[in-house]
Predict the structure of TonB-dependent receptor.
Amino acid sequence: MTFIRPTLAALAVATAFPAIGLAADAEQPVVVVTASRQAQRADEAIADVTVIDRAQIEQSGASFGLPELLARQPGIQMATNGGPGKSTSIFMRGGNGNHTILLIDGMRIGSATTGTASWQDIPLSQIERIEIVRGPASALYGADAMSGVVQIFTRKGQGAPRIDAFAGAGSYGAREVSAGVTGGTERLSYALRGGYTETEGTSAKMRKATGYNPDHDPYRNTSMSGNLGYRLADGHELGATFLATEGRNFYDGEASFNNYNNSAQRVWSLHSRNRLTAGWTSTLRFGQSVDSYEGFMLSKPAGSTIRTTQDQLAWQHDIRLPVGTLMAAYENLHQKALSEGAFDGGRTVNSALLGWTAGFGAHTVQLNARHDENSQYGGKTTGYAGYGYQIANGLRFTGSIGSAFRAPTFNELYYPGFGNANLKPENAYNKEIGLLWSQGGSFASLTVFRNRISDMIVTFRNPSTGRSMPSNVREALVQGVSLAGGTRLAGFDLEAGIDFLDAKDRDSDASLPRRAKQSGHFRVSRKVERITAGVELQGVGGRYDAVSFSSSSLATATERDRLGGYGLLNAFVKYAVTPDWSLEGRANNLLDKQYETAYGYNTPGANVFFGVRYAPR
């Protein structure tokens, strides 16, 4: 395999981490729920997981939102069409942009017409915690989780009532304000917050791109979230959550400033969690998510609407057995998609899933199976089998195999003059092994994976008919090595990650678009009395923006529009004026690197952002 030599180099680096981290302070274990749908320690999960908490979000220096923060995590690359608020794709482990699903408080959100989530519209101010699970997860979450899952948990409340707030401003006319109130008693917990961000931006497109317009393309976003929980009695809880965002984004497309779209993301859920017996907990959750888009152009003053509504019901039972824990659940998902002037339809998915996790001394096992019955294309069964072995104190081996699939989008199926109603789901079969070392707050992880994708859906233009349409005709092989680590050394907090990726179309040997063969990041920070400061370096190798197929047989393909590699240097500082008040500053792209994540689209140059935060402890 093409990444064998990088793997050996990664192993050499991994062996150095334990020697570095022996003196690190012990920390509380991190808990993750997305990896198995049940709470477990992150360092005991078999899947490749990352947890980003609120403190890390505030220190990240991610001025331009969720996509920027995710792109700094191992195994994730990003492409954006012009900077903040513009359409963004997330590529996890070399998969396509529609191979990763986004959950918010357990609810699926995204567009059923494009198959992707509006990552750019989710503000960091509303997020308490992010859990990232890499690898196939259809056996847990159904269609589209071919490369991974990102789950966002909104802010929650506890303890005495308190108000927190943040206000800041920076380059490109960036402004941000947010405020919230949280609290709780022995029975009641609550949180309510709102936020607003905007930026004047630059021109979304470069001069070389079709539709270039030298004007600025602003973006603004208004958001609100809430969380309410009430404990009826010991072991019995009712809860409700919601998140709503509205954005307006200007873009290049015609020779006019009046090209913009209005977007809205809304998700709410109600849940009842009941301990039926000492070892049996039932969780019933019902909710809805909406992904809405309305576009306006000078030539189309009336606008056009695209909307996805997803009604979701999940009933999960967690039962403690004499050996391990059983998870049994039923889900019902109804998706309704509207594309004004094109189609208005829906589909229903009924799902049954089982899971079992158990520990036997140094051994850990996780088994999952799921069957999805889709009203559009029939049934699909997926599975997952994972094994972990504690080699020594702090050193753990993991291995897993899993299957996953992606459902065709409504655009791929029904869009007039384009759709193909005969499409089948894409299928994936993944194998991976990993090593995880953790001790005293330090960690190092190494993951090697191989994901084979069949019936891959691609769009091509048939020269005999002149029509472009999607078809199930390709196979892809995505394989790679991911190394990550973190420690504390001489008072400095260090974190680093590097990825080697080989993502190719097996039929033509062409690289999958917008995925670099190498990417990585390095971060160092230190706290001295009231000041916390750090720098971060992010690097991404060269890649191609697109692949062109030369004939209707798709026997050959040509990589085109090469995107050069780039390195970004960022810095941040925080000064605690008092225990409750702090001043924050961050500088991104300090070297003013000119780079592209999508061909012909601009990205931010050197920029700064300063703010003041009030956060009572």
